[in-house]
User: Which sequence fits this backbone?
């Protein structure tokens, strides 16, 4: 389903094509300059670090609802093996992991989404092939992601335990979270948007209950796209499966709450803005820490694994306060 005209106009308005040159493949990560990195370092006071990653194991959020996405499967390929046959020598144990690169906590590569035959910065969608993966705008092009992070804790700001399923986050909601955080969002910051949806995944004991984490989900609406562009945010990550509200507004308007309709926030963020976008981040411990000391900014270290040509990048993000 094509983007409706009003969203095409928005996409053209917020587009970053050519902003960092016609060969650019990094998008908004270019906004993380030395000043943004220093600002992140200056946010560190106690030296306390908080993990923002879910465990990478078979209990992850994948249920088969998205074809091909599998939870990480670890297998041993050697067990206390020696090269000499003498157990008195060094013995080695190795394993391999099979996973979808977007199965657990991850960043989306800019090549993850195309429409009208193009990915970010006007590169043809045909630069992605089965043999090579993403020859342009793959996750390997992102580089280091180290900057100031800011937690936007929407449940705390709006006075609820978690946002309702299918709740569409507005610019006013983001403003309320920024005011609650007491932080001025600046160019090159990474914003972590907490919805509270992860509580559904934590409580799930069956596949159906796990699917409730995926659908319906609170998330960012198309109304917030310009909000992030106006502030020159370098990256945005959320604590839900779909990043944006799901069913998305456009599919809901057309009465088709399924994966078939366009996911407009993904389309415009990745393909037009070149905005680095993350899902399945665990923000609950960070939220508790921020509420405890009243500080919602920190040094964020969140560089994706450099899989050549990959459409997603598993990551273990860390917030250091």
Assistant:
């Amino acid at each position: 389903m094509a983007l409706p005209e009003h969203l095409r106009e928005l996409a053209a308005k917020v587009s970053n094509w050519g902003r960092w040159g016609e060969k650019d493949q990094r998008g908004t990560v270019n906004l993380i300059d030395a000043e943004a990195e220093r600002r992140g370092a200056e946010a560190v006071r106690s030296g306390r670090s908080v993990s923002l990653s879910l465990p990478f194991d078979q209990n992850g959020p994948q249920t088969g609802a998205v074809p091909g996405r599998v939870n990480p499967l670890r297998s041993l390929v050697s067990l206390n093996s020696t090269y000499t046959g003498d157990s008195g020598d060094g013995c080695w144990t190795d394993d391999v992991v099979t996973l979808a690169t977007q199965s657990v906590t991850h960043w989306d590569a800019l090549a993850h989404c195309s429409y009208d035959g193009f990915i970010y910065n006007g590169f043809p969608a045909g630069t992605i092939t089965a043999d090579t993966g993403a020859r342009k705008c793959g996750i390997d092009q992102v580089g280091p992601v180290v900057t100031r992070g800011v937690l936007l804790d929407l449940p705390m700001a709006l006075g609820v335990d978690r946002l309702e399923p299918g709740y569409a986050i507005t610019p006013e909601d983001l403003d309320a979270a920024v005011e609650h955080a007491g932080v001025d969002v600046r160019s090159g910051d990474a914003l972590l948007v907490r919805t509270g949806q992860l509580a559904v995944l934590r409580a799930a004991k069956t596949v159906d209950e796990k699917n409730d984490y995926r659908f319906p989900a609170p998330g960012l609406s198309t109304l917030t796209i310009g909000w992030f562009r106006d502030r020159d945010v370098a990256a945005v990550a959320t604590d839900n499966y779909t990043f944006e509200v799901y069913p998305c507004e456009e599919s809901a308007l057309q009465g088709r709450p399924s994966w078939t309709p366009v996911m407009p926030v993904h389309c415009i963020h990745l393909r037009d803005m070149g905005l680095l976008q993350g899902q399945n981040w665990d923000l609950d411990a960070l939220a508790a820490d921020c509420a405890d000391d009243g500080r919602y900014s920190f040094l964020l270290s969140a560089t994706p694994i450099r899989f050549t040509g990959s459409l997603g990048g598993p990551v273990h993000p860390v917030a250091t306060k």
